[in-house]
Specification:
The chain has 169 residues and is α/β, with parallel strands linked by helices. It has 5 helices and 8 strands.
């Protein structure tokens, strides 16, 4: 069984999903790929794991870096999982590029190459927005590129983390 819970936030209504123990999804209502990995049968219920996420989000949206992470279990291919794991390594208040993520993937996978475009597709399909910080990925020239939650939301999240030197593409 998969459970969902809705949380109001400064970037709009968030829909969070869980298997009861781990977070499997976090989407901004109306975002691209909204609830793509959500099972057909879900039960809306407030579970302790959702309170854990709410606490994390409260800290995050107050402009501070949370010192804990709820358990996450994103659904995706092994390539996507690898990219999402690397997204989790991007420090709060910092950014990286799609190209750098592709290089990191190659280093971790015995030189197996991946294009920045393939990395971008994996980043764009991240099912756990904000907690897995895909908003911290920018273009190679420092410009903002697509974000499933919208560029305005990406800007808001980056500025919340103190990143203000961003360019529109």
């Amino acid at each position: 069984m998969e459970y969902i819970h809705k949380i109001k936030s400064p970037v709009g209504l968030l829909v969070v999903s869980s298997d009861g123990q781990n977070i499997s999804g976090l989407w901004m209502e109306g975002q691209k790929y909204f609830a793509r990995t959500l099972e057909k049968d879900v039960l809306e219920q407030n579970l302790p794991i959702f309170e854990n996420v709410r606490e994390w989000l409260d800290i995050y949206f107050s402009g501070r870096e949370p010192d804990f992470m709820p358990p996450l279990i994103p659904k995706g291919s092994s390539f996507q999982q690898s990219i999402w794991n690397n997204l989790r390594k991007i420090p709060y208040g910092q950014t990286t590029t799609y190209g750098e993520l592709a290089k990191q993937f190659a280093l971790e996978n015995k030189g197996k190459c991946s294009s920045a475009r393939a990395v971008g597709t994996a980043v764009g399909h991240n099912p756990i927005s904000i907690l897995i910080p895909c908003h911290r990925v920018i273009g190679k020239n420092g410009s903002l590129t697509g974000y499933a939650g919208g560029i305005d939301t990406k800007i808001k999240l980056l500025q919340l983390e103190g990143i203000n030197d961003i360019k529109h593409s």
